[in-house]
Specification:
Number of helices: 1
Number of strands: 10
Helix content: 10-25%
CATH architecture of the largest domain: 3-layer Sandwich
Strand order of the largest sheet: 1-10-9-4-3-2
Mean pLDDT: 87
Bound molecules: FE2/S2 (inorganic) cluster
Structural class: alpha+beta
CATH topology of the largest domain: Rieske Iron-sulfur Protein
Strand content: 25-35%
Oligomer: single chain
Order of helices and strands: HEEEEEEEEEE
Distance between the termini: 60 Å
Radius of gyration: 22 Å
Length: 135
Amino acid sequence: MKTLTRKEFIEQVGIGAAVLFVAACAGSCKKTAQGPSSVNFTIDVSTGNLATNGGFLVQNGVVVARTSSGSFIAVAATCTHQGGTLNYSSGSNQFVCPLHGAIFSSTGAAVSGPTSTAVQKYNTTLTGNSLRVYS
Ligand code: FES
């Protein structure tokens, strides 16, 4: 049996610990999207910002946007970096934080900037001019 030097021992234990950490983290360390957990409200889209393609508004902690093609999308309005209120950019179909430039996709995924944590996406259903936004 080979006797390990102190350096060899530390190297092998260190690698083992790193492997264990990665294995333990693989399923449980993924960051969960953040935002209000119980969302359910309706908006009249016949007037105001949502009456035209590319418009958006923030209500009940949710940013609701009308894309350039006229569909509706909604995500949590609070940036997962330091709490800035997100804007919607219809040109890129993304949500943008004005504080430090974080960008989130139309489904809330963190695309770039100082955070890798997504914002929660919400469902939308349009009935006539009434848009329901819900979790
Ligand atoms: S608070 Fe949104 S990028 Fe910093």
